[in-house]
Amino acid sequence: AGGFVAGIRAGFSYNTFPLMDGRLVPAGYWDLAPALANFTANIAAVQFNHRLLATAVLVVAVVAGALAWRRLPPGFARGAVLALTGAVALQYALGIATLLAVVPVWLGTLHQSIAVLVLATALAAIHGLRRPRATASLTA
Q1: DSSP characters for 105-124?
Q2: Exposure of 64 in the CB half-sphere (CA atoms within 13 A)
Q3: Which residues does residue 20 pair with via DSSP β-bridges, in sequence order?
Q4: Residue range 40-55, pLDDT digits in tens
Q5: Sign of the four-CA dihedral 39, 40, 43, 49
Q6: Which letter does DSSP use for residue 63 in this model?
Q7: Distance from C-alpha of 18 to C-alpha of 39, rounded to nearest angstrom
Q8: Domain segments of the chain: what residues?
Q9: Under a CB-based contact definition with an 8 Å cutoff, are residues 39 and 46 in contact?
């Protein structure tokens, strides 16, 4: 979603949060034909979809962090999930700041760069949460 926002420069429009021109779903969401073009070329739709996806990811990350804190023992897995929660929260906050500041290059670059941190912490969390593989025992 972020690639589409950057690609069509959608961050330069609708520079308010959480509403877009005073509306939750912006006017003009379905303006393009064919309808599928709205998902890649319509500034209103692309930015709304990015916001919606980001909010959903934040909610899932916070729930995962809370569950990790309550149910996982201290260690790598818990730390990795909590790091992922923090990285997603940072990315969300930077996204809002970037939007409200009308995408200064340094902030847009930082927002895109933190996506790498989100990916890295997600991979660490997946690694930490994996089930150990059964190993074959060698008996003579």
Answers
A1: HHHHHHHHHHHHHHHHHHHH
A2: 24
A3: 23
A4: 999 999 999 999 999 9
A5: positive
A6: H
A7: 20
A8: 2-128
A9: yes
